[in-house]
Amino acid sequence: MTATLAALEVRGLRKVYRSGLRGRPVTALSGIDFTVQPGELFGLLGPNGAGKTTTVKILLGLTHATEGSARIFGLPVGDPESRRRVGYLPEGHRFPGYLTARATLSVFGQMSGVSRADLARRIPALLERVKLSNWADVKVKKFSKGMTQRLGLAAALVHEPDVLLLDEPTDGVDPVGRREIRDLLREEANKGRAVLLNSHLLSEIELTCDRVAMLRQGKVAAEGRVADLTASQNPGFTHYKMIVSPVSDELLTSFRDTGALVERVNGHLQLATRDLEHLNTLVDRARAQGAALQELSPMRSSLEDVFVDLVKMDAPGASMEGGK
Amino acid sequence: MRTLVANVEEVFREAAARWVLVAYFAISTIFILVFSFAINLDIVDGALAGAKIFGQAVESRDLRNGGIDIEQLVLGFESGFSVFLYIVGTFLALFATAHLVPRLQEKGTIDLYLSRPVGRVQLLLSRYLGGLLLSASNLFYLMGSIWLVVVWKTKVVHPQFFLAALVILLVIASFLSFSFLVGTLTGSTGVATMTTFSLFFLSLFVAAHDRMAAALDSELAAGLLHGLYWILPKTQEMGKAVFALVAGEEAPGRLASALTLSPFLTTAAFGVVCLALASWHFQRKDF
User: Fold this and answer.
1) pLDDT for the residue numbered B44
2) pLDDT tens digits, residue range B130-182?
C-alpha cells in the first residue's frame, strides 16, 4: 500500500506572508505542484526569493501553507507523524556546540523516536559513512563548516528516513567531500529513498538529480528530467558546434537551403539539424566548397543556461510566462 | 514519550554546558557549607544554652536566663529562611530558564527540532517541564541540604519546611509560563527576563490594591487596579503562605490569614492561561 504512495506530493501550494497588521502581503508561493517518487533524486531550483525555502519549510511543518496541500507518504504535513519518515538538513543549521558528534546524533535520533540500543548500533556506522569517526567525541563547536555539514547529513539519516530534504548539503564542503556526498545521496536513492535537494549550485543539481523543478516568482516555471531540460530548445532539431575553414557567406547560404538553422558565433558555427543524415549533408556541402572540417560536436545547454534564461524572464520588459 | 524524555534531558544538558546548572548548584552549595560551618549550637536538655556564629559567641538575655527552646528556634529559623528562599529561589530559577524558548526559536535551531516527529505544543511543553524540573531540583537540593544541616545541628526534625518548596515551585511555574509567553512572542531572552521580573515586582506592588484604589479619584482606574490584582499571581500572599505553612500553629495571625485557597488558585490560573497562550502562539507561528 505504502509503495504506491508518492514520497512527496504538493498540490496548489500557496503561501502569503503578512507582517504585522498593516504589512503588505508578500506572495512567496502562487500555487505550485510537484511530486517526488520513492527512489527519486529531485532538485528544487530558483533564484533568491523564488519560494524554494518556503516550500521546504511547509513540507516540514515549519511554516503553514495559506492554501493547497502537501503530503508525505499520504500524510498531511500538519501531522507531526509525517515527519517520522523525513530526514532534514536545514541550511545554516546550528547544532548545540556543547554536544559531541556522537551525542548530537543520539539526541536527535531519540527525538525521532529511535531507541538508545538502535542508536548505539547505528551511530558509529553513520559517523564512519560521513567520515567523522575520528571526531565522534569532539564537541561540535570545534568543527569546520564542512564537518558540520557532514554531521548534519548524518543527523538527517540517523532515524533511517524514507525521504531526505536537503538544503544546500554541500555548502562549505570541499570538492572531494562534495563528490562523496553526491555518491551518498545516490546510494540513498538506490535504496528507495526519495531525495529533495534544494541548492544554488546548479552543477551539483545537474550531476546529482534525476528530475528538477525550477521555481520563479512562486511558480513552477519548468519541471522535468535534467536531460530533457538541457536538451535542444528547438523541438525536432539537434544542435551542433562546427568549426570549418574558411567560412563564406555562400557556405552559410547553402547550409540554410537545406532547412538547417545556422548561426555564426565567435569563429564557429552553431547548427541545428533535423537528423544525422541532415548533418552529413551539411558536412558534404562544406567539403564540396573546399572548407576543411576541424571540429564537430553536439551541443547541450547546461542547467545553468536554462536557469539563467528563466531568471532573465524576470527582468523588466521580459515576457512573463507563467506556469510550466 | 522517548521524544519528551530527550527534550527534557536536553534542557539539563544545555544548562550544564552553559554553566547555568553548575552556577546554580555551586551558589547553593556555598550557601549550605557556610551555613553548616558557621553556626555552632550548644543544646542542653532541648534548650539552646549557647551559640556561636563564625566562632563568635552570641550574647542574649534569653540564653543567660536558662536558654531558648530549640523547637521554637528551628521553627523560627525555617519560617524566615523559607521566605528568603522564596525570593532567591524564584529569581535564580527565572534567570536560569529564561533562555529556553528564545534559544529554541533561533534560526538554524528551531528547524532541527521541528523537523522531528514531535508536535509543536509537545515540544514547548517538554521545554517547560525541563525548566520546571531544573528549578525544582535546585530548590529541593538547597532546602533538603539546609534541612539536613538543621537536623544535624539541632536534632529537630521538622518536615513542614518542605511545604515551602511546593509553594515556591508553584510561583516559579506561574512566572515561568509568563516567561515562555514573552519568549514565544519576542524570541528574546533579555525581554523575557526583564518583563518577568517586572511582573514579579508589579504583582507585589498591586497586593496593596485596596489602599491604592482608595487614594484614586477615578473609579475606572481603581477598577483596573483591582482587576490587575486578581489577574496577576499573588506574589505577596504566596510569600505569607510560605511562612505560615512552615510555622504552622506558631504563625502570626496576619500571616496565617493569608493561607486561603484563592491566592493559590489565581496564581495557578495565571500560569495555565499564559502557557496556553504561549502554546497557541507557538503552534500558529511561521518559522
Assistant:
1) 67
2) 999 999 998 888 888 888 888 887 788 888 888 889 999 999 999 999 999 99
Q: Which residues of A50-88 are buried (b: 16+ CB within 10 A; e: fewer)?
A: bbbbbbbbbbbbbbebbebebbbbebebeebebbbbbbb
Q: For residues A212 and A206, what is the distance between their CA atoms, to the nearest angstrom?
A: 9
The answer to whether residue B41 scores a pLDDT higher than 90 is no
CA distance B282 to B285: 5
- B78-136 pLDDT per residue, tens: 888 888 889 988 998 898 899 999 999 998 889 989 988 888 999 999 999 999 999 99
CB B106 within 8 A of CB B112: no
Place of cell 521566605: B83
Helix extents (H) in A131-174: 145-157
Candidate from A64, A86, A99 with C-beta closest to B115: A86
pLDDT at site A55: 92
Residue B204 has pLDDT above 50, yes or no: yes
Res. A317: pLDDT tops 60: no
Can you tell me the distance from the alpha carbon of B58 to that of B55, in angstroms, rounded to the nearest whole number?
9
Task: Give A139's DSSP letter.
Answer: B
**What CATH number has the domain spanning A238-298?**
3.30.70.980
pLDDT, residue A157, reads 94
Task: Encode B168-222 in three state secondary structure.
Answer: HHHHHHHHHHHHHHHHHHHCCHHHHHHHHHHHHHHHHHHHHHHHHHHCCCCHHHH
Share the mean pLDDT of chain B. 85
Whether A318 shows a pLDDT value over 50: the answer reads: no
CB A270 within 8 A of CB A241: yes
Average pLDDT for A216-225: 86
Longest Cα–Cα distance of chain A, Å, equals 78
The sign one gets for the Cα dihedral B116, B118, B124, B130 is negative
In the three-class reduction of DSSP (H, G, I as helix; E, B as strand; rest coil), residue A88 is classed as strand
Chain A positions contacting chain B at CB under 8 Å are: 17, 57, 60-64, 80-84, 86, 88, 90, 92-99, 103, 107-108, 110-115, 155, 165
Of the partner residues A64, A103, A110, the one whose CB lies closest to the CB of residue B286 = A64
Residue pair A73/A113 in contact (Cβ under 8 Å)? The answer is no
Domain segments of chain B as ranges = 2-18+70-284
Cβ atoms of B52 and B58 closer than 8 Å:
yes
* Set of cell numbers at residue B86: 522564596
Amino acid, res. A286: A
Domain edges within chain A:
2-230, 238-298
| C-alpha distance from residue A279 to each of A254, A274, B117, B207 (Å) | 13, 8, 58, 95
**Hey, how many other C-beta atoms are within 10 angstroms of the C-beta on A171?**
19
Q: How many residues in chain B?
A: 287
List all residues of chain B from 105 to 144 with a beta carbon under 8 Å from chain A.
Answer: 106-120, 122
Q: Which CATH architecture has domain A2-230?
A: 3-Layer(aba) Sandwich (3.40)
Do residues A129 and A94 lie in contact, with contact meaning Cβ atoms separated by under 8 Å?
A: no
CA-nearest residue of chain B to A79?
Answer: B119
